[in-house]
Amino acid sequence: MTYDLGIIGAGNMAEAIARGVLAKNVLRPERIIAADVSPQRRELFQSQLGICAVEDNASAARDARIILLSVKPQQMPTALGALAAAMTEQTLVVSIAAGISSAFIEKHLGGGRRWRVVRAMPNTPMLVGEGMVALAAGFTASPEDVAAARRLFESAAEVIEVAEDKMDTVTAVSGSGPAYFFFLVEQMIRAGQELGLTADQARQLAIKTAVGAGKMLAGSSDSPEELRRKVTSPGGTTEAAVTFMTKQNWPAITVDAIKAAERRGKELGQ
Length: 270
Known about the structure:
53% of the residues lie in helices and 15% in strands. The chain has 12 helices and 8 strands. The protein starts with a strand and ends with a helix.
């Protein structure tokens, strides 16, 4: 049987993508096959999503029109070496591995063939239909290949296209970005508890505030700076907090942290 999509590495992000394409009827479950070494992940894909799941990567790649590479960057050379014999130049390869360039993928697939590769960097809010994805075409990928990759992700995310040399920056800003956001909310909850709120009260206040602020950002024509200014009354409580953060060099620390993530992305591809 020929499949429209073969998923190599059935982890959480692959699950989010699969759920998105199924929910929006982009693909039917019988048109997807997934491979993973974990019996638990295979069972989830089969029982919850109705997707055929196998252990062997080559078995999933052999009959798939599009391959979604969602293995960890450190596992990529081994995975690619096993896939090459099962694929042809007609196979579109879409990779969501951080730091792994299209040239790296082409090299490790080998054979001197013109592999069609599109890199993608999604983030975990795809799990709730609010993802962000950037796409970058490899050297031999066509506009039609990029459009095919776009269709996979648009079911649960907004999609932009960037030059490949910007993908590590995308990874640092939006791929890793949800973790920065969650980390801030963690500290808001901690502060609420240290100031006398119960754990449940602090959690409810911090999370609902974050959700509401996010909706304001998405729905307003104002910049984040302007929205912050509107909350910050001169001499008030918000100004006291923002002034303290600024004196502690919090803005520079945040920017430097994202730059550190970008550097790590480059290291993963070496």
